[in-house]
Amino acid sequence: MIRVLIVDDEKLERVLIRKGFSWEDHGFHIIGEASSGEEALNIIRLEKPDVILTDISMAGMDGLTLSEKIRKIHPQAKIVIITGYREFEYARKAVQLGVEDFLLKPVSMEDLSKVSTKIKADILEEIEKERSIERLKESTLAEQAIILESLLQRVVEDESLQGAAKEKLRASGLYHLTEAHTVWNMRIREQNGATDESRIHTVRELLGNCVDEFMVFQHSSQNLVVIHKSISMEDSLEKARNIHESLNLRMKLYATIGISRVHHGVDELSPAFREAQKALSASVLLGRNRVITFPEYESILLRNEEKREMDWDDFTFSVENHLEEKVMKYIDQYIDFITSSNITDIEYYRMMTMDLISKASSPLYAIGLDLEALYGEDEFYKNIRSIHTVGEMNDFLKESISKIMALHKGRKSKRGRKVVQDALDCISEDLYSPELSLGFVAQKIFANESYLSRVFKKEVGQSFIEYVLKKRIEESIRLLNTTDDKVYEIAEKVGFKDSHYFSLCFKKVTGVTVKEYRRGREDV
């Protein structure tokens, strides 16, 4: 209901206006009456009416003075002046004050109906514009969030992107979160062993309730990565354990969480992420469905204080580019080192196996795969637990890393293209559905949303939103050229719930409004 205030120092006039027109039937609600300007201002401050009908000639404060004061305290209000004057000077001043319309005394109910109908239409149009702007803002914010999430995912893998990350984080008001932070790598599973994508949003909400300041995004490995602002590892550990307990008890989810040490600045996001990955990998020895810190991971490796360092960058490069002979030499060197260390601890063998496979599998994350692609999660950990000798360790490493190279070689080049093609097919099928969105398509083709956003832009040369918008506007142009459909009908046909938003998008793509386009076609 549109809320109306009647202001007149003559009671009879107020009664005639209230009783003479069926306000409720036309979508209006009279919130009150005022017999003076001062009384009206008090009501306006409290009630904020949408429409104010005021007599121009009142004792004390006249209608024009009241209108001037209303503009200062409630500028959104629609003001209608009721007057017996026809002088130009009054009309000119009223227009300067932004008065919507005039009603001449004695007030005709026909005139009152016309004025109220016009004002109602204006108010509803303004409300719809505001809603459209809000929807546009939400859409823009959602796209910015996708861009930031995609960038963070790449930053934790590639330290060369830190400069771009700094600028994006500053623009988003999130840069301060990285000044002192830990990174968490969270593997979430249903208690029956399956991953439930629908729980990701719920987990995000849980983080919001338990953690003061954080960023979270879904990694291409399907794990959640949390950047937690924290000056102490103890604080992060306590928060992570609280979340772990809530996931287990309240949501019936298994969660294995690896936590890095405290790091400082965007430059250390990537090292912190690698620490969280390593802490998570220690679950093969320490057990899953628990919180594991990087120092716990280190304590296992430090059993051999003279652990030989390999050129890990070259090793992962060789795996990624399928340099099989070089990779096998690295594995042989690794095994020789383990053998010469004279350590016979079975758990140490398993930890070192997991450590090397974790490093070898890191290139898979960039194409949306992880260790589970080798055997399945349960089978993989079962195979790790079956290692008892250096020989078994050697065999398993060569078998697994060969599979990683084959997966990477076979899917790196074509997986992105296949995912994009599947997405394009889905878009073509559902192009005019109002439900079409990046999340809708990702779910339908069983792809990670952030990964799809990234590879779609790379392969198509446009963002998902830009591509869909262009296709819909192209279809709307065809309909404008071949039919006499109204604008709102065309908007609905091409997938827009709101005709005003459609008009905004049409001008954004074509450079002209729908009316200008149609007029130009008619002129031709």
Automatic annotation (TrEMBL):
* Domain HTH araC/xylS-type: residue ranges: 421-520
| Record's keyword terms, sorted | Cytoplasm, DNA-binding, Phosphoprotein, Transcription, Transcription regulation, Two-component regulatory system
Q: Does the keyword Transcription regulation apply?
A: yes
Highest taxon of source: Bacteria
Q: Where in the cell is it found?
A: Cytoplasm
The GO terms this record gives for MF are: DNA-binding transcription factor activity; sequence-specific DNA binding
Response regulatory domain segment(s): 3-120
Major location, coarse class?
A: cytoplasm
One GO CC term of this entry?
cytoplasm
Any one GO biological process: phosphorelay signal transduction system
Which InterPro entries does UniProt cross-reference here?
A: CdaR_GGDEF, CheY-like_superfamily, Homeodomain-like_sf, HptR, HTH_AraC, Sig_transdc_resp-reg_receiver
Could you tell me which residues carry 4-aspartylphosphate?
Answer: D55
Record bears the keyword Phosphoprotein:
yes
Record function comment: May play the central regulatory role in sporulation. It may be an element of the effector pathway responsible for the activation of sporulation genes in response to nutritional stress. Spo0A may act in concert with spo0H (a sigma factor) to control the expression of some genes that are critical to the sporulation process.
**What's the protein name?**
Stage 0 sporulation protein A homolog
Which taxonomic lineage does the organism of this UniProt entry have?
A: Bacteria, Bacillati, Bacillota, Clostridia, Eubacteriales
